[in-house]
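Dear U.,

For the methods section draft, I wanted the exact inputs and outputs in one place so we can describe them consistently. I've listed the two proteins in the order they'll appear in the manuscript figures. Please don't edit the token lines directly; just add comments below if something needs changing.

First protein:
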Amino acid sequence: MSYHASSLGCCAHVASSPASIPSFLKQQVEGGRTDGYWIEAFPFRAAQNSGQNLIGYGLGFQDTPSKIEMFINPFTNEKSSNWESRQLAVLDFPVAMNFADISGNGFNDVIISDKYGPSMNDIWPNGGRVSWLENTGDPDAENWTRRTIGFSPGMHRLKAGHFTTKDRIQICAVPIVVKSSDLTTPTPVIIFTAPDDPKSTGDSWPSEVVMKKHLVHEVVIFPSLDGGLDRVLLAGGDGVDLIWFDNSAWKSFNVGKGHPQTSGNPYWGAGSVAAARVHDDIAGYIASSEAFHGNTVSVYTKSTHTSKGIVDIKWTRHVLEDFGPLNDQHTGSIHEVVCADIDGDGIDEVLVAMMGSDPPSFDKTGVWCYKPVDLENGTFSRFKLSNVSAGRIAVADYLSNGRLDFATISYSVPGYFESPNPAINIFPSTSIIAEKLNDEVCFRVPRAPSTRFASELEFLDVSARKLAIVVLPPNTAHKVPAGSAVKVMAGTVTWLDGKSGKIEKRVLATRPFTHVSMSVNADEVRSQDEGAIFMLLKDSKTSGTPPYSTMDALVAHNIIPLHYPEDVCAMRFPWVKVEDRPWANGRFKGLEFYNLVGFHVRYADDSDDVIAHVQLWTAGVGVSAGFHNHVEKSFCEIHACIVNGTAKGGMRWAIVPDDKFNPDDPKLDDTGLIIVPDLHEHGPLWRTGRDGFPLLRKNDTVDYPWHAWLAGDKSASGKQSYDVWIAFEFPSFATHSVSHIKPHTSNLLKQGRYILSEPFSQMIVGLLNCSATDGTPVVAFSPSQNQTWDVSNVTGTDLYQLTHAQTGSLLAARWPPVDGQHIMGTHSPANMSLTSSWAITVHRDACVLPAQRISV
């Protein structure tokens, strides 16, 4: 089956050049399972093409039937943020399932086979039941009514469609064997046709055996090219076959014989099959795994000048991968292949479900992706998408955002192969893009409030830390490993501290000339109303253990996933001695001072707004990074220390006027000092006004005092050691005021809903016509018109914003506010020379109305 995202309408964008394979973030749907076999993307409504639920189950055990569970998609369910389960049925040895609206009520019913038996060598002779479970339309309903469709021992795969008529739902159902251990007798291909009243409790559905095939392990619907009847792709001992009904007779076309017979091996042919779309050809190529539970991935390709479709075309088989020798039972690790356009370039990729192996193998576990490079010659590139056992893959647009995601269930079948930690996982497509930019990487991320799911991308392993960029939607929890730390780049991150029991909050910057810990003593962090973008620093055992006595122990590793662009994955990030940087201009000769560049983080929209530029530094004992004041370039810089190897490393800044300080021969008595311990960040060191906004020089650069990182002095032992820190260069932003004038406590403004009044006439301030249009004037009304305003603190500052409660419009004006100036309400407060951030206090003569009253 080929999977495709639905259209995004006129705003959708399809890249003209090949898109990079997206990254996928693993999220557990259900862990702690006892078994695992089948997973299906289940559209609850018949007309639904995104936001699907999941149905998952295992085969069960001799003494314990299997629970058929539906997991409700939290991305389309406002009631819960978890994948809540509903038990649809309890069945003995269920195998395959599909869905269709059999009852005709607009909701998809479940079609499922059960009573298979414990294994292919122990088939229940009276089993192989096919049933349907009625969906009444209540997503909370459990134990759906089951009705029998028919029986055939060894029933193993089925699909719903219209094969001989479009008037009735039909089911193509195929056993894998007809009796225990019989691998040679052909099995029937059965077509069940729904009766007039499928809800009647009478006999089984009318059925017809249309042909027989050998050891069929996969059944896939192939739609007609002209909108007619459905066709069926089969993968089995005969290889890959397409079968279909043509007017009055069933026909068959063999695409290829698959894996050839070999001496002593009872399996040959194909084990799974999927047709891949290439632009407007729904069978641009065909993917297959070989043979039954084999270790071979193959594709069938056709000439670029060949007609569309499958029939009467010469197909050429190409072996893409052989995962090595089979086991003693002549089986391997591949259980399914699917085709889906996961990168949106109009050409399907192949996703391969690897169940795992004994002994464990990285190559034989998880999901591999094969992307066409040269189809006619069968050339594909390969990427790993998941490292957890995958029995089957369910591809769908689970997040309803126009991008394809996938879900897997671990393969864990007693007596065959049992995954050590069976689970159901979903892998949403992440929206973090990585591009090579000269010697640096540019990461483009979505604005946190605009995304509905978390994205995480690991990119660098250095100094016993794995660095990752994380984007969280508003009010979203994100699991973090023990020992992690966070550096916020946008928004707010909070967590419940496991030791103190207090809520910890981190924003873009702590208070000026202080430091704060980045360590998270919790198993999850949470964003607030504005969402969050942050760097996550996770423990690593692959990049040395601090402290570091030589730079050889400080090698940095590129850990950007291999499905990102090849040029990005091939990049190296060496520590370069600063004296060798072209901008050093002869300085820092002989100093143990090194730099690692670098990473740009920008928004992935038309604005291309900068979030931060990030680079790393390290300095040995007694080294000064050189006093500087950023007079050439304007940004606000925060340093986050990974390892304070010298114990006394930190930031110094001049406390005397700039012209009284000699950066080439600094007197430390003329400086202040913040020692920045391991996993701490310092606050702003730039000069600000009383409102917290940076002061600017005449050339529009941020006004800094002379400042530098100075490593600690030599220890008594005389051993070398290195400080390692990350420099975050942000566009200028407001922070807490450094004013030494403390307002009276009674005059501090509390966040809440207020009525604004003109202080002399007591008239109420509001928007003209209560309009949300940009530039709407703010005017005074009689006290009878109570328009209200929400007053909230601007995160990380002492400033406030005034938001019109009825329209969401912000109050904006020129800064500083003066008597008689015009003010306006606007949705776009970034107008030239305007601000929506205010340093305001409660007027001493304000009286109390139903809402609080303040003066402006």
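Second protein (the one for the lower panel):
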Amino acid sequence: MGFEKRLLRTAHPAGQPDRRAIPGGGSMNLVSRSALAALSFSLQVLAQISGNINGLVTDPAGAPVPGAGIVIQSLQTMAERRLSTNDQGRYFAAALQPGRYRVSVSHRGFRTEVADAVELGSGRFLDLNFQLTVGAVEESITVEGTAALVDTSAGAWGGAISQSQLLQLPSNGRDLFELASQQPGANVAANSVRSMNAGLGARISVNGMRSNQNGFQIDGIRINEASGAAPASAAGVLLGLEGIAELRIVTNPFSAEYGRAAGGVFTTVTRSGSNAFHGSLYEYLRNSAMDARNFFDAGDQPIPPFRRNQFGGMLAGPVKRNRLFFASNYEGFRDSLTQTSRAVTLTAAAREGRLPGRQVAVAESVKPFLGLYPLPNGREFGDGTAEYAAPIPSRTNENYFSQKADLYAARQLRFFGRYTWDTGNRTAADPFQIWDFASESEYQFLHTGAQWVASPRTVHEFRAGFSRVLNYELAHVVKPAAQALSFIPGLPLGAIEVTGLTEIGGITQRIQPRRYVVNDYQFNYTWSHHAGRHHVTAGSGFDRVQLNQVSDNVRSGFYRFTSVANLLQGTARLFEAMAPGSDSARGWRQNLFFAFIQDEFRPLSRLSFSAGIRYETYSTPTEVNGKIATLRDPLRDSGVTLGGPLYENPSRANFAPRLAVAWNPTGDGRTVIRAGGGIFFDLLSTRELIVAGTRMPPFFRRAQITNPAFPSGFSNIAGAVIAESIDTFDYRPSQPYAAQFQVFVERQMGPTAVLRAGYAGSRGIHLPGQMSNFNIAAPVILADGRPYFAPDAPLRNPALGQLGMRLTNFDSNYHGLQIGANASWRARFHGQLKYAVGKSIDNNSRAIFNEFLTPDRMA
């Protein structure tokens, strides 16, 4: 059913509107259609951030009314779209901006019918049918109400979160994408680790796929960070919630208009200005006044302090009424958090060489480094080690600004643009407070476009955009006792690992500094045409992607000791450092291209189909300074091959078909059975380069010295074994993709509640993953078939050492039952419930590193 029809007036003077229900009880239909917004290379198509209104106009006998005049007017900007019905009495208005509209229908001999306050969401198809009544054109009938709750179109996969829900529902840090995880099929990994390599933002898995196989967009611009995961600042959030009109998560199978996402798509539409000025000022304060102690807090100490302020404001309105509009948004984020850290340090006796049961001579070269370990303040463990607990502070600052403008140059021509800038920084100490680990972020998004309504049935849209996402990490030595210590002349202190003690520096220090900058230039064109019962969309686009990175590893050196006694004696097991001349700076360049055609076809009022095909391909990445080295055959090559290509391109045959069907068995719009499936490619891009693209000899080498002198191991680097510890990419990869399929039933329960239940399945094929050592020893197969690895067995390729290899040899399976319910009460209360039970099986859950490992495992 369409509008909730209310009898407002039953009689009226001539020339004034008759506000009453439309006769027949069901002739006014408003059927929404989701826009399956999944990110393509530039998330470019108009259906992602606009909507469509279409329907049938009939007379009292149910016969179509050709030539009826249709006027669709925005209630925010008063912009109009004028068209007329065709010979079958149908009309179609494409590429309308999200918002509230007034739709009026007039024809000689009939009263004017008006649908008021029509709410149009992004990417939706609204079926709005009119049945005219005999009378004078000057007389009018106005119907008010809300949109249908159940979408009967074939392409309606996923769900939306409205502006009021975004602003009123609780959200930790006002993160833009956090609330999207409340949709059925979406799940946030609670124990996942956020990092530059794995992603700083929310780690959301959709229908069993990995968290970095999703797409994220704002106003049609792709904003994924280098790892492919959700974008986020140094604070771990994406601000700007006040300026968002709608957030939509679209699950597969989405239409051929969208690509570059094997999981889900998270798409947002920003708020625009209107003829009336409107704005807001806000501040949110959170502190530790009512916090409970966590597991690690000391019972005899005050709760560690915490204070967070988020503040800002938005102002939108007209520059010139009915023509030029603006919307400005600012948000600030200030966070001061102290957490209790518990570490393992040396006892006072151990520093003097007095270990349980024996005395150890402490080497003079070691004594300055023992001061790096603080004295214990907790229990002793009986082996020369004890507990050290301390409050560890962190500080976070972030500023966000966005400016949007809309220009209606003519009734058929609209220009629009938006610029977003955000900068953030965070500092946090290590458990021994030797370093301050600093994280910095900056992103800029520029979006411009033009929309030309060539005819009531045809719309052209041109878009050009730019996305820049920068993340940077650096370690600063702050402890005075450590500032004079170093393993490598001219560089700060490196990391020390001792079995039984908390590592000095840890993996965080070993991989500093790191800097990833992704620049994505996006250009596209989309054509939309309506003919009869068909709505055809076609388009193409081009992206130019740049990844500029620095990704050092053990730049300041790393020592490993196997016991406390060995530390005291200065007897190290291993020293590792970047070899002189090593360079991890890279400038990668890649081109991406797509083309698609999609047909939305409704042969019957109760039945609709969505079918399309998409082609997307990309170039093999090139490096601006020619720093490319490959292993063409890792089991036979005695060394690397210099020069490109980085790998053989597997994307030339990337044709992805999509098909979906929806059936409304009751005909009342309250029940729909929907099924669909398709192929969705997971493109090889920046995610594959941030590790494998930087750690190849001869441009990058790590030296390893066994049984080195401490702390002067680097002085012997000239005679050290240069470890060909390679991280590379398979030279002959397969194209990763996923086959997705779903069957769902939706039912409207009462006037304001919807229940949704169904099955979702996915099959990931040729997924990328990291094998930590591809060059293992070759086993001997025993007589009973068991493999035997002899202690002195040679490596599979004796010419190489440890070989980390990114392969596309992994698969996944997911099957799940998903249930969701939504309900509203009195337009002020909203409730949502989701439940899912599923089974996910794979032979590698990782994309770069395992997404569900703890930090000490993420080496």
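Candidate sentences for the figure legend, describing the second protein: Residues 162-272 form a domain with the Ferric Hydroxamate Uptake Protein; Chain A, domain 1 fold (CATH 2.170.130.10). Residues 1-47, 850-859 have pLDDT under 50 and may be disordered.

Thanks,
Y.
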